[in-house]
Amino acid sequence: MTAEAGPPATPVVPSTVAFRAILGKDLRAELRTLQSLPAMALFAVTTFVIFRFGLDRTSLSGDLAAGVLWATLLFAAILGINRLFVAEREEGGFDAIRLAPIDRTALFAAKAAALLAYLVVLELVVVPVFAIFFLDSAAALAPLALVLLLADLGLAATGTLISSMAVNSRARDLLAPLVLLPLAVPLSIAATGAIEPLLALGGPGYHRFGTWLAVLGLYDLVFLLVGYAVFDFLLED
Amino acid sequence: MYGKGLRPLSIATVAALVVSLSLVFFYAPLDADQGFIQKIFYLHVPLAITALIGFVIGGVFAILHLRSGDSRWDAYSYVSIHMSVIFGVAVLITGSIWAKASWGHWWVWDEPTLVSFLIVFLMYATYYPFRYAIEDRERQARYASVFAITTGAFVPLNFIAVRMAQSLVHPRVFATTNGGLPGSMMLTFLVSLLAMGLLWVTLVKFELTAKSASGQIKRLRRALDAPPSGSTPRVAPEVS
Amino acid sequence: MLSLLPIATPALPLDEAGRYVAGAYVVFLALIVIYVAIMAAKLQRIERELRELAGFVEHRANGDGRAAPEKERATSDV
């Protein structure tokens, strides 16, 4: 064990300031370099094409639509999650943050918020494309957005947590998907459970909509709390 | 140090297993629904419950490890999860046999508990590649503890979600609601559960003892400046 | 739904059901046996390494020029 046993007793820099600073840095970097988002979006749209031929369908509804949409978004998200901490690692950014007199959970919150932002932007591009490719009407898009937002929050929490560990490992690109996919199963079940009736042929349905949203919310809460509680221990060295 | 209670524990485990087997085949009544096949229930379900509790225990040890920094808790956490994964293999195989015998297929997606368990098993199976991909020993232990805590929180969420995903059209395949068990079956079940629990604890202790001995040998080697295994000249008499 | 028919002796059906139940219990036993075999191998390796270390210590003690009967006794206690 090294001398630094944990975060300083009273952070010199307030957490909100640190949060805004880190989040701003990340978003500005992404805007400048555009290294993750275009790739994620392209990946998703191409995957839709693969599904079109793989399933031999030109329109999707109900369970098939929910499955194709969610699976594609999940795999595209993993592309972004893999790259979430790469900049920190390459530029020695972890050291700067470790030495800085800030509450380390500000890093977790900022990174999760950045990932959430990426996922939202991804969906703003990809979901309309999905609707154009496969859906008959856009009536479901508004409730769909709500479901996806809650699901994205869960992905942001778990993705940040796992990615911050995977970035320090040997099999970097492999580890995050490996651990994240089973972890995302309950999230996937709830998300597709809510989306399936929304994309039904006859028009959006809300069968068990509230229950699924509650499960999503519970998932988000649990893993945000877990991330908040353990993140300090991840940055110790 | 670890091996101290091992003998009485092993004896207790064997005794419990023998008693449990006797109860299963000589005492518990035959199930009207499934007949003799239901006997697998006394093997499969206690294994599953023990494995799941073992995962939770692994998570608790992980919390203790993070809070204290003592690497012994990490060893306990690792072995708990490791043993529960092994028990998990037994759960899935016996569950599959039970599915084939009852339903005609080696796997059924309709049984939410079995499906949940599969997902939990897959989750914990990633513990090994995850752990061993991290080179620094202390960091490896810390990250493994974070993993164990995260997956510990995951287990109940997963069961909830899978159960909810069951379509209300499909009937429950194995209606093993414990509340509906007659007394003799419940007794048999509880004894079997106890036996599996004892088995888990015994094997965990076994594994920890071996690990501890290996670790002490390594430290001895370093302290004596002895060359690594296989290259020492054999002067001491062979003990066969 | 559940029969309350107590049975004093086990029915040992040689029909299909018996085979599956036996299969399940055999798998369980096989896993235990495999685990014990692996542990036995580990223990053998631990024993071998201890012997090596004991030999090394004795070798070093003898090399120092001291007859080390206590060391010998100590190592043979292992």
Give a nutshell description of this structure:
Chain B has 240 residues and is mainly alpha-helical. In chain B, 72% of the residues lie in helices and 0% in strands. Chain B has helices at 6-27, 41-68, 71-103, 112-125, 127-132, 137-165, 183-224.
Assess the beta-strand content of chain C as a share of residues: under 5%
Shape of chain C: rod-shaped
Computed CA radius of gyration of chain C, to the nearest angstrom: 27 Å
Helical coverage of chain C, percent range: over 70%
**Biggest chain pair interface:** B-C, 54 and 46 residues
In round numbers, the mean pLDDT of chain A is: 88
Number of separate domains of chain A? 1
Helix amount of chain A: over 70%
End-to-end Cα distance of chain A, whole Å, is 8 Å
> Termini separation of chain C (Å)?
60 Å
Strand portion of chain A: under 5%
Q: Catalogue the unreliable spans of chain C.
A: 1-12, 65-78
If you average the pLDDT of chain C, what whole number results?
A: 72
Low-confidence stretches of chain A: none
Task: Tell me the number of strands of chain C.
Answer: 0
Describe the structure in your own words.
The complex is a heterotrimer of chains A (237), B (240) and C (78). Chain A is mainly α and 237 residues long. Chain A has helices at residues 15-33, 37-55, 62-82, 86-90, 93-99, 105-134, 141-166, 172-183, 185-198, 209-235. Chain A starts with 14 loop residues before the first helix and ends with a helix. Chain B has one domain. Helices cover 72% and strands 0% of the residues of chain B. In chain B, helix 1 runs antiparallel to helix 7 (183-224), helix 2 (41-68) packs antiparallel against helix 3 (71-103) and helix 3 (71-103) packs antiparallel against helix 4 (112-125). Chain B starts with 5 loop residues before the first helix and ends in a 16-residue tail after the last helix. Chain C is mostly helical and 78 residues long. Chain C has a domain at 38-78. Chain C is rod-shaped and about 75 Å long. Chain C has helices spanning 16-63, 69-77. The termini of chain C are far apart. Chain C has two helices and no strands. Chains in contact: A-B, B-C. The interface between B and C is large, with 54 and 46 residues.
